[in-house]
Amino acid sequence: MHAETSDAAATDWPQILGLYDLLEGFGHNPVVTLNRAVAVGEVHGSQAGLATLEGLDDQLRNGDRHRLHAVRGHLLVMAGDEQAAARAYALAAREATTPAERRHLADRAAQLSPP
């Protein structure tokens, strides 16, 4: 779906959400729920996306937990809470499993932190 658009703004988020809804119908998978939260946020607003994340903290394996914090950071930026988003990205950076992810997430946190 992302590759079919001319730019990010043209992404068909309702269709992406529908596809994640179908995936969740096959059985609970916390990684699917995590990805679905982004689509929920894009379609129904950041608060709905953040609500979708509730309860996932204990369901994700350690190697996936940084993604939860990164998604939370993304949704908090959408909500306009840059301080909380910076904290979420910083936590994601600390838990990231690769140097590249760690750098990217730390950069996101730094961009949102006041000087």
Tags for this entry?
115 residues, mainly alpha
Can you tell me about this structure?
The chain is mostly helical. The chain has a domain at 33-112. The protein has six helices and no strands. The chain has helices at 13-25, 30-44, 46-53, 62-79, 82-95, 99-112. Helix 3 (46-53) packs antiparallel against helix 4, helix 4 packs antiparallel against helix 5 and helix 5 (82-95) packs antiparallel against helix 6. The longest helix has 18 residues, at 62-79. 32% of the residues are buried. The mean pLDDT is 93.
Portion in strands: under 5%
| Tally of separate helices | 6
Question: Roughly how much helix do the residues carry, as a percent range?
Answer: over 70%
How many beta-strand elements? Answer: 0
Task: Provide the structure class.
Answer: mainly alpha
N-C termini distance: 37 Å
How would you describe the oligomerization state of the chains in this entry? Answer: single chain
The major pleated sheet works out as:
none
Give the topology string: H per helix, E per strand: HHHHHH
Cα gyration radius (Å) = 14 Å
| Whole-number mean pLDDT | 93
User: So what's the overall shape?
Assistant: globular
